[in-house]
Amino acid sequence: MCSNLDTDIPVALSKIKLDQLQFCKRCQGKPFVVIQRKDVFCRDCFYEYGSHKFRSTIGKTRKVKPGDRILVAFSGGAGSSAMLDMIEDGLNKSANHKKLMFSPTILYIRELNYANESDAIITQKTHKIVERLKKSCLSSMISSMEMIYQDKEKPTFVDLGDFDPLDKDCPIINDKAQSKFWSKINSLSTDTSKEDFLRISRQQLIQKVATAGNFKYIFVGNTCTKTAIQMLTDLAQGKGSQITSEHSFTDSRFNVEILKPMREFIKKEVLFWNILRGTEPVEWSTITTFKSNKASLMKLTESYINGLEHDFPATVYTIFKTGNKLKFPDPNGVICKLCKSVIDPEQRCSASNALQLSHQLSKNLDDVFINDGSDRILCYSCNNLVNEIKIDSTVSPQKLGIADYLLYD
Amino acid sequence: MSNHLNIIVEFKGGMELLFDNVTKKELSLPVNSGEDGSAPVEWTIKDLINHLKEKHLKERPELFVNDDSIRPGVLILVNDVDWEILGENEYKLADGDKVLFISTLHGG
């Protein structure tokens, strides 16, 4: 069966392709991009398609009201660059019914040099991002990853105008906090945990800024492709019960709700939007950028999905839509202190109970898991992460780990 | 009689990291009349990918190609048009073409 698929389907696709892909499917104009190997758009129709999709993703949930203050999390990457451009474009529309009415502020979080790139490259990338923010009609704030360990009395973000990457007195450049952050990252043994740690830290930092600035919602630029990859990665890490809260349009686990207006765009659409509009994203290298496909679970899942997508162009949509059909967990359940997701309700036969039992039996231990009985405060996956952080202390590791993670309560 | 095909190649979305952080290259590719076979008669995208891999790639080739074709997750545009419209690997390059390689991968 597999050999049939390998030979027949791609040939069939390529035969349809060239004949039928020569005209825009809406206006018969000159083709610009093909989505899912069948939908051809010219530049004008792709622009209409993209900006309509963005407006409708926000509009159909009826969450955002005119005048709402929104913190737009901008990383400089493809997804958030396209999001920022769509917001700016939407605010400037002349037709009233197409105009976006909320009031956005940009937040850029300066990342650390994870991939050990040269100072010249880092400076160049930072410069490009700062220039992009200066060009924007919106006001911008800048923070940096180490700010999750910022001293309590100091600010965690500054206005764009007050930011100078070379100024050591700039409040968001804190060497002490940065080395603490590095020591945490370096204490994790796998790249999967490091990526997870960065994701959670970033999420908490954005929350911290949004709470301090009294914002109503946070916009993040997660695409459909990223969501599909992250969903499968989360499943593999034992976060199955949290998929709905983390990956739906509204994520209300935290103080300030996170909305994902780009979640119906696949990465290809986002890249072509950027090309169409001339936005120049800056891709910040991650821990696994120069590593093999097997460096982390996320990287592996990404290459797996991309490989499948090559022959079966509906892969991402299928995963994404299946994820959308999952049931929300019971909101009255116990909340994980770290990721704020609802932990599996007490069930006699949950997967984590089975794991716990097997762990106890195989090591002949009485009780090692902190995910146990009434003290369940971390979900299975966060528990693994916290346990991985090496701590040189006699205090019980889980307590110290959690205290170190918690940024505000 | 030998001739040259002049094209511009660009790298974005993290692809430039594999090419010494160069985002734009102007290439002059040798074109052969076909008699001695030392250079292709016509250059396809597939030939260009191979040429880039052999002659210009600075970092790990597995992050650029997969077997003989481009790594899944990397998009190609010729003169700002999706290469899927143009026949992907089989598209025959013309003088003055601008070929853009752009990575969809997280972190480039």
Concise summary:
The complex is a heterodimer of chains A (409) and B (108). Chain A is built from 14 helices and 9 strands.
Description:
Chain B: InterPro entries: Beta-grasp_dom_sf, Mopterin_synth/thiamin_S_b, Urm1. Chain B: Keywords: Cytoplasm, Isopeptide bond, tRNA processing, Ubl conjugation pathway. Chain B: Belongs to the URM1 family. The complex is a heterodimer of chains A (409) and B (108). Chain A is of the alpha/beta class. Chain A folds into 2 domains: 19-329, HUPs (Rossmann fold); 334-409, no CATH class. Helices cover 46% and strands 9% of the residues of chain A. Chain A has a 7-stranded mixed sheet, with helices on both faces. Chain A has a two-stranded antiparallel ribbon with strand order 1-2. The model of chain A is unreliable at 1-7, 368-374, 392-403 and 405-409 (pLDDT under 50). Chain B is α+β, with helices and mostly antiparallel strands. Chain B has one domain: Beta-grasp domain (Ubiquitin-like (UB roll)). In chain B, 15% of the residues lie in helices and 34% in strands. Chain B contains 2 helices and 7 strands; from the N terminus they run E-E-H-E-E-E-E-H-E. Chain B has helices at residues 45-56, 83-86, and strands at residues 2-12, 24-32, 65-66, 69-70, 74-78, 81-82, 98-103. In chain B, strands 2-1-7-5-6 form a 5-stranded mixed sheet. In chain B, strands 3-4 form a two-stranded antiparallel sheet. In chain B, strand 5 and strand 6 (81-82) form a beta hairpin. In chain B, 41% of the residues are buried.
